[in-house]
Amino acid sequence: MIACSSKLVLGYSVVESLPGFEGPLPFELETGWVGQLGILDSSSSSSLFVHEYIVHLWYVGVDKSEDVQLFYYFVKSESNPKEDPLVLWLTGGPGCSAFSGFAYEIGPLNFEANQKEGSLPTLVLNPNSWTKVASIIFVDLPVGTGFSYGMTSIASQSTDLQSCDQAYEFLRKWLIDHPDFLSNPVYMGGDSYTGITVPIIVQLISNGNEAGIKPLINLKGYLLGNPSTTPNDRNYAIPFAHGMGLISDELYECIDGVETSQILEPSCGFASPKPQELFTERRYVDEKNIELVVHQPSPCDSSRVSPPNFSNKLLPI
Q1: Helix 160-177 crosses helix 194-210 at what angle (to 10 degrees)?
Q2: Could you tell me which Pfam families the record lists for this protein (predicted)?
Q3: Which residues does residue 65 pair with via DSSP β-bridges, in sequence order?
Q4: What's the topology of domain 5-229+301-313?
């Protein structure tokens, strides 16, 4: 978390400033705890009030013994929270923190780009936040992601199906604790690897509603961004590229006529590299890619349009 100044008021903390944000916060930042949800201590729960929307941060225990503690950020809609959709958003990986979705994708706060090397990251409001039209719960899932954790070695282990079960239980417990949102339309959302888990969670919610498990969830649909699905879906990459005009008709017809099991020899003839040559070229490409990944752009690099990742510069409370 980001270091902050706060004062203690009746068992919870009100944060008045954040490093990187000039002057007093134009919103109320509150930290506290919710005991009935398996909170361990007063440091494991907080709520953040931001301008016209509200952000809550705390742990929700899942599983019968509540050995799994899931951390989340909740941002209340800026428009009409009583009627606007409620979105449960998961980040991919698996293992990417919900903070990524909160601060780099669809949440209300962003880090300002073009920071000077070594300077304190600057926080700014995100004018394109989805919280302008929806209330969003960002969850650290699976267990071990972000601030979510297991209290035992067994609880710290998780499969995709276990994560889906925990997400469903999380949502049910969250709605029980926030009954004002029981009537809101609910959407599941996520990106990348959650293309595998989100549909399963949606099915669990639907099955639970049909079985009459309370609370009933007003499920309306789900949305996925650049989702992972199955390896078979990758076969559509070339037809898609052709349909979008990214590759020519001539190249597409050539590719379409190639026997994939003979991609190296002999169908491609002299134009195809020998296996050893191919390995050498691929190794060269891999090395170049690694250089691109570890390259740190200079502060004056105007080609960088996305905010830099400051996750390694956050300070402990």
Answers
A1: 50
A2: Peptidase_S10
A3: none
A4: Rossmann fold (3.40.50)
pTM of this structure: 0.64
| Burial bucket for residue 121 (CB in 10 Å: 0-12, 13-18, 19+) | buried
Residue 160, φ and ψ in degrees, nearest 5: -60, -45
Per-residue pLDDT tens over the stretch 26-68: 543 333 222 223 333 333 333 333 333 444 455 555 655 668 8
- Whole-number Å distance between alpha carbons of 59 and 35: 10
> In degrees, to the nearest 5, what angle opens at C-alpha 52 toward C-alphas 114 and 92?
55
* 22-54: b (≥16 Cβ within 10 Å) or e: eeebebebbbbbeeebbbeeeebbbbbbbeebb
Domain ranges in the chain are: 5-229+301-313, 233-272
Helix, strand or coil, per DSSP, at residue 312: helix
Q: What are phi and psi of 213, to 5 degrees?
A: -70, 125
Strand pairing of 186-191 and 86-90?
parallel
